[in-house]
Amino acid sequence: MGRKWNNIKEKKASKDANTSRIYAKFGREIYVAAKQGEPDPESNQALKVVLERAKTYNVPRAIIDRAVEKAKGGSEENYDELRYEGFGPNGSMVIVDTLTNNVNRTASDVRAAFGKNGGNMGVSGSVAYMFDHTAVIGVEGKSADEALELLMEADIDVRDILEEEGTVIVYAEPDQFHLVQEAFKADGVTDFTVAELTMLPQNELPLSEEDQAQFEKMVDAIEDLEDVQQVYHNVDLV
C-alpha cells in the first residue's frame, strides 16, 4: 500500500498550495455536516470526521466557526452530495465527490472536464467497485511495531500498518477511524499527519509519461470545479 500513501500525500501537498480553494471546500463540507446533524462534533460523527481532516490541512478556526454558526443559524442553503465516476487515459479510473446546489450545472461541468481532457464519464458503479472505502491515519514519532502493539492493546483490528519516511500509516475500516485516533491520543499523540476517509484503489495503474501528463491535466480541471470536494483515482503517479 505504500504508493497509496504517497498519492494521498501528493494530493495533500497540491491542495496545501491552493489554500483559498481548500478552505472554501472545507467550509462547505463543515456546513453540510453540521446542518445534517447536531452542530456538536461529539454527537455528530460526520462533523467530527470533517473537523479532524480540516485540522491536518491547517484550516483556520475562523472558517470552521463560521460554517458551524451558519448551520446553527438555520441557513436555507442546501447541497446535494453526488458522486461521479469516469475514465481517463489508458483506462485509468476516477471517482469525483461533489457538494452542489445545482445538480445540472455540476453534472455538465464534470462531464466537460472529463471530455475536454481525454476522459469520459461512466455510469454509476462503473469505477467504485475497484476502490475500497478506507480510513487512513498517519502519526509521527512511533514505529510500525509500536503502533501495532498500541492498537492491539486497544482491541482494534486494522487492515495494514506501514512505516514510511518517519511516518506510521494505519489503514483501517471506515468505522474504526475515531477508535484509531482515540487510541493514539490516549498514548499522547496530539497531531496527525493525515486523517482521511478515502477511496483507495485495489490496484494502481502506471501510465506512460505522455498519458500521465494528460491524466494530471484532466484531474486538475476536475479539482478546479467549484462543486468538487474530492477526487480519487487509481493512477500510480511518478
General description of the model:
The protein is of the alpha+beta class and 238 residues long. It folds into 3 domains: 2-72, Arc Repressor Mutant, subunit A (Orthogonal Bundle), CATH 1.10.10; 80-129 and 202-233, Alpha-Beta Plaits; 132-201, Alpha-Beta Plaits, CATH 3.30.70.980. Helix content is 44%, strand content 22%. The strands form 2 sheets. A 4-stranded antiparallel β-sheet has the order 3-1-2-8. The longest helix has 18 residues, at 19-36. The radius of gyration is 18 Å and the shape is globular.
Look at the structure and name the CATH superfamily of the largest domain. YebC, transcriptional regulation domain
Number of helices: 8
Unreliable segments (pLDDT under 50, ≥5 consecutive)? none
CATH class of the largest domain: Alpha Beta
Percent of residues in helical segments? 40-55%
- Helix-strand pattern: HHHHEEHEEHEEHEHE
The structural class is alpha+beta
Using the CA coordinates, give the radius of gyration.
18 Å
Topology:
Blueprint: H1 2-16, H2 19-36, H3 45-56, H4 61-72, E1 80-87, E2 93-100, H5 103-115, E3 120-121, E4 131-140, H6 144-153, E5 160-164, E6 167-172, H7 177-186, E7 194-201, H8 209-223, E8 228-233
Antiparallel strand pairs: 1-2, 1-3, 2-8, 4-6, 4-7, 5-6
Pfam families: TACO1_YebC_N (PF20772), Transcrip_reg (PF01709)
Family: Belongs to the TACO1 family. YeeN subfamily.
Keywords: Cytoplasm, DNA-binding, Transcription, Transcription regulation
Quick tags:
single chain; 238 residues; alpha+beta; Arc Repressor Mutant, subunit A; Alpha-Beta Plaits; four-stranded antiparallel β-sheet; 8 helices; globular; transcription regulation; cytoplasm; Integrase-like_N; Transcrip_reg_TACO1_YeeN; transcription
